[in-house]
Amino acid sequence: MQRQTTIAKPAEIVRKWYVIDATNIPLGRLASFVAVKLMGKDKPIYTPHVDCGDYIIIVNAEKVALSGNNKLKNKKYYNVSGYNGGLRTRTAGEMLEKYPEEMVERSVWGMIPKGPLGRQIAKKLFVYKGPDHKHEAQKPEVLAWKK
């Protein structure tokens, strides 16, 4: 008996909306969990070249935890403007204080594939600083974090 490999077709994919509260969750663990959900790797219909994932809303991004000694002072985030001397450096403490949404988005982006498919996957991530979000109409389910 020969087995047939099933390949997901974009029209057949059912996407759900999920909300994750990032309070006291380590940033790396949150990012890897969210990346798996965004790509759809937790679904039996996962196909590597098709966007099979769900929509993820992350709230309370400013309350995300960083493990490690002095990571708030020692971990650096870099941006290059393209001009000579255009390197901007920020510590993780500054990012968490001023730009927590960007910090979470960058960590998730590092764990999804690069290229056109990765950009399509990244568009399904929504990060908010506080507990409120604007996606109540989609009726998102709350994803509980397992300790």
Q: What's the level 1 CATH class of the domain at 14-66 and 100-142?
A: Alpha Beta
Give the overall average pLDDT. Answer: 94
Radius of gyration: 17 Å
The helix/strand series, from N terminus to C terminus, equals EHEHEEHHHEE
Overall helicity: 25-40%
Strand % is 15-25%
Q: How would you name the CATH homologous superfamily of the domain at 14-66 and 100-142?
A: Ribosomal protein L13
Note the gap between the termini: 43 Å
**Can you count the beta strands?**
6
Q: Flag low-confidence runs.
A: none
Question: Which class of secondary structure composition applies to the elements?
Answer: alpha/beta
Shape: globular
The CATH architecture designation of the domain at 14-66 and 100-142 is Alpha-Beta Complex
Query: Count of DSSP helices?
Result: 5
User: At the third CATH level, what is the topology name of the domain at 14-66 and 100-142?
Assistant: Ribosomal Protein L13p, Chain: A
Question: Could you give the order of strands across the largest sheet?
Answer: 5-2-1-6
What this model shows, in words?
There is one protein chain. This protein is an alpha/beta fold. The chain has a domain of 96 residues: Ribosomal protein L13 (Ribosomal Protein L13p, Chain: A, Alpha-Beta Complex). It has 5 helices and 6 strands. The strands form 2 sheets. It has a 4-stranded parallel β-sheet with strand order 5-2-1-6, with helices on one face. Strands 3-4 form a two-stranded antiparallel ribbon. Strand 1, helix 1 and strand 2 form a beta-alpha-beta unit. The longest helix has 13 residues.
